[in-house]
Amino acid sequence: MYCKCGKKAIIFRRYSGEKLCERCFNKSMIERVKKVIRKYSLIEKNDFIAAAVSGGKDSLVLLHILKKLSEKYPFDLIVVTIDEGIKGYRDKTIKIVKKNCKLLGIESKVYSFKKELGHSMDEIAKRDRKLSACSYCGVFRRYLLNKKTRELGCNKIAIGHNLDDEVQTILMNFLRGDLSRFGRTGSYYIYSNERFVPRIKPLREIPEKENVVYALSNNIEVGFSRCPYAGEAYRNNIREFLNKMEVEQPTTKYSLLRSYDKIYPLIAKNLAKKVKYCEKCGEPTIGNICKTCEFLEKL
Amino acid sequence: MIKVRFLREDKEESIIYKENLTVDDVLQKFGYSSETAVVKRNGKINTEDENVEDNDDILIISVGSG
């Protein structure tokens, strides 16, 4: 299989019919991210962006691409990593993040659950709890990312959500009947407030597989290990279903995202809830008490 | 014989070479598809339609999440 330029292809995009060599694929990746950034005005002049980098393939591919773009466009970049306190897993990926930051010359900050909230994920996982470890982790991570990036003076948080993450989330929330969350997966915000740092998703139209190919072809050191607490069965079922559908009917994932993006302006205003301030900690929330305070009380 | 290594799972297996065996056949044999894994054959990223040769070194990188 050969690329249109005549070189040997390293990837076949079944959804578009493109066969691309390493050089054309890398060029195309950058162009597609730029297109998403332009389409949704994700990055503007003089933005101070915090890249949320865990050390996995998605966030590190995002970081490398943002670094490339920051050399050409006027925005500043810093890396923020949340250390959930998962021994044998996060400590290893933090080392990978630091190596990448050193290589790219980007300042990085690490904030830990233990230091900031008093509990590590290893401690939480050992407890008798009603919710999954992922529920605590997701809530605490979003809370810390928002709080710390705001304190750093950042006006946006860039996260590495890819096409697969987006369509899984859309379908999951729809099937669960969680319409409040269903109305919050778009590429822009309906409601915001001054203590809320908007999150941008420049990779939302990049299939997960292509992030792996980009990391491999650019020799980006990424962590491929899996979180020992990962096991969101529902998401795994949705992932399997969507992958099976994509093999049988390429473009399934893009069609789902496009459909969602078309109805998003119609549903978001009705489904999204206004952002208030937590009565306990003052952080942004849609309830009276934020999830972090609610969970911390139970621990 | 073809050596098949799995990066995320940190394991190794071997399969017997057959004529016209493709990268996609190898993926399917181990429960993967073009959506769920990337393959490096003898150190280079390969498309799924490529033929596999005897004594090849196949590395399967599960796409997974993270």
Describe this structure in words.
- The complex is a heterodimer of chains A (299) and B (66).
- Chain A has 299 residues and is an alpha/beta fold.
- Chain A has one domain: 3-Layer(aba) Sandwich (Rossmann fold).
- Helices cover 50% and strands 11% of the residues of chain A.
- In chain A, the strands form 3 sheets. A 5-stranded parallel β-sheet of chain A has the order 5-4-3-6-7, sandwiched between helices.
- Chain B has 66 residues and is mainly β.
- Chain B has a single domain, classed as Beta-grasp domain (Ubiquitin-like (UB roll), Roll).
- Chain B is 11% helix and 36% strand.
- Chain B contains 1 helix and 5 strands, in the order ββαβββ.
- Chain B is globular and about 35 Å long.
- Chain B starts with a strand and ends with a strand.
- The model of chain B has no long low-confidence stretch (mean pLDDT 93).
